[in-house]
Amino acid sequence: MKENYCLHAFLVCLGMMANSQAFSTEKLNHLRPLHGHHEKGKEGQVLQRSKRGWVWNQFFVIEEYTGPDPVLVGRLHSDIDSGDGNIKYILSGEGAGTIFVIDDKSGNIHATKTLDREERAQYTLMAQAVDRDTNRPLEPPSEFIVKVQDINDNPPEFLHENYHANVPERSNVGTSVIQVTASDADDPTYGNSAKLVYSILEGQPYFSVEAQTGIIRTALPNMDREAKEEYHVVIQAKDMGGHMGGLSGTTKVTITLTDVNDNPPKFPQSVYQMSVSEAAVPGEEVGRLKAKDPDIGENGLVTYNIIDGDGIELFEITTDYETQEGVVKLKKPVDFETKKAYSLKVEAANVHIDPKFISNGPFKDTVTVKISVEDADEPPMFLAPSYIHEVQENAAAGTIVGRVHAKDPDAAGSPIRYTIDRHTDLDRYFNIGQEDGFIKTTKPLDREETAWLNISVLATEFHNRHQEAKVPVAIRVIDVNDNAPKFAAPYEGFICESDQTKPVSNQPIVSISADDKDDTANGPRFLFTLPPEIVHNPNFTVRDNRDNTAGIYVKRGGFSRQKQDLYLLPIVISDGGIPPMSSTNTLTIKVCGCDVNGALLSCNAEAYVLNAGLSTGALVAILACIVILLVIVVLFVTLRRQKKEPLIVFEEEDVRENIITYDDEGGGEEDTEAFDIATLQNPDGINGFIPRKDIKPEYQYMPRPGLRPAPNSVDVDDFINTRIQEADNDPTAPPYDSIQIYGYEGRGSVAGSLSSLESATTDSDLDYDYLQNWGPRFKKLADLYGSKDTFDDDS
């Protein structure tokens, strides 16, 4: 602390000496006369610059000065100042009057506050000499600068408190890792306050740092990530060129070694033992093995291959890239009875190899995998994957179709039991011998119905029925000639009526062909002939075209529909089967009327008979009857519409079917002369129900005279009775009048009854002043039945 105080005092002395030197120079400048010089202006005009009586240079003041007295910055003095006090010095500009003050008589400038160069490096001020009495400027104002002189009061600071960097493992010595940078707020142009030097405090001997640039480099070769991955380095930056007394700052750098492929994969063991059941299906996993590679990422990727072994055709290996394991799978089925063990040679190799480290190779490893086959209870095996048998149609039940054979592949050799899958033989055409496997028919088969039958035969072990096998069996039904040929279509021939002398045409009247349901071997070729009994038919003949078709020809002319309009010609059709089958088919030939060109006109026998029908007179009579009936209906409807309804309702008619509308409107609640509402009774009172009474108020008031209603009006009673009697005595007047009771408002009203029709008290006992409190809806009633005092107040 004492040494720092002495240094600070020394710097203050240096600053004062600099200020004194500047002031002395300034004073000499004041005393040295400055002569004006001439300059040429435009068009040869000579300009003369006025002489300035006082000038000065820059002033300096040291920062962070903490002395007891203000710091003297400098002194202003004018040549015209004779020392009699008539000149006044004025200071203006940045910090004038707050930081910098001037003695207006002597011109001395002092700094009243501690200055910090890092906050502001210089101040621009304006000085002027004026007359003290009149404030008249004696000299033009001049500008000068006060610079704050720097001291080493700021330590270096790094841009980041912590840095993170990566460098590949096994990098060469001197490999650049990262550059750290520090800054110093002090003035770099003055002394060594901002001159920084970098050094490493922690991290040797693995890393080093360049003193001038701050670049961190590797210092040891072959650093291995697998041995140590992360390093922590501390870097220091010191000002004053690193000399004693300088200020310093530090930062931490975390350096991580990134991985390179410098390690080959290695199997942890030389032999792997695995097993697989002979019942396993291809694709099933047999086992896993893994080669370890300490590298990470793509540098640690390993692929597996089978390079040798007697099971190379039966097994395969794939790579699980998530677990980096080799998965051995079954490629083809294995048989315990054939071979009980296999051997494989598996190779594990890196996917990505770095050429820089090829000398560390080879980057692969091999291992032996021994696989043993386990015996399993296998299902029976048929000697053939499928069977095809034949049987003739119409064969008798019990005919042998063929045989299937299966055996148990296990060493025990269990007996086999055969059955037919009835889902494939719903009609139960076949049976099978349970022990020998012979398939037999259960009924004759028809090839024309089904030419092929497909069934499935099941073979099951006798001692273990869960072990079974299935084989498809196709059975072809062989055709026999059991169907005679028939017409391919329902043929029909037509001939024209003609004279006896008209020549017969050589064209057939119709061509026919045949169809046979049997196979082609038992079908065509077809033969067409007439039956033996009509071979010499005088009317028609058959000519076989020897192409499975035949033509029917006319042997004579002169056919007449009046004599015979229809001929039925039997034709015998034979097939080419062994033995041949034949059938007799009937051809219909019609005699038709034709025009001169031979075109058919009509083939009906009724063409020569007159058409039976109605005459014209009969049709006219029928139409006349229809018109008369229509006229009668129209007249009847018209008369019905003109008929008037009777005005009098008969006694047997229900009067409830008449709806009468009244447009009369009553006089309202003020109409007290129309009728006596006291005659209207409460319907509930008839049944013994006691209606709700008005609640008598606690305080009684006299009702206003003259406003009480007349409950028993004799005139209204007489009026109503007279009208009722007139209506009852008038036989032509329907009972249009009715009396409805409206004197009861219902039960359960919260406000209570508003009617006094059935009140047991007299008018003098009732007080209706409470109607004033029931709101505007009851204002009219309150005015009618209110107390006299209230009425007088309102009036």
TrEMBL record:
Residue stretches making up the Cadherin domain: 78-158, 159-267, 268-382, 383-487, 487-608
Protein's UniProt keywords contain Transmembrane helix: yes
Domain of life of the native organism: Eukaryota
Alphabetized UniProt keyword annotations: Calcium, Cell adhesion, Cell membrane, Glycoprotein, Membrane, Metal-binding, Repeat, Signal, Transmembrane, Transmembrane helix
Transmembrane annotation, as ranges: 618-639
Gene Ontology CC entries for this record: adherens junction; catenin complex
BP GO annotations: adherens junction organization; calcium-dependent cell-cell adhesion via plasma membrane cell adhesion molecules; cell migration; cell morphogenesis; cell-cell adhesion mediated by cadherin; cell-cell junction assembly; focal adhesion assembly; homophilic cell adhesion via plasma membrane adhesion molecules
GO MF entries: beta-catenin binding; cadherin binding; calcium ion binding
Pfam families referenced in this protein's UniProt entry, alphabetically: CADH_Y-type_LIR, Cadherin
Name of the protein this chain belongs to: Cadherin 11
Native organism: Monodelphis domestica
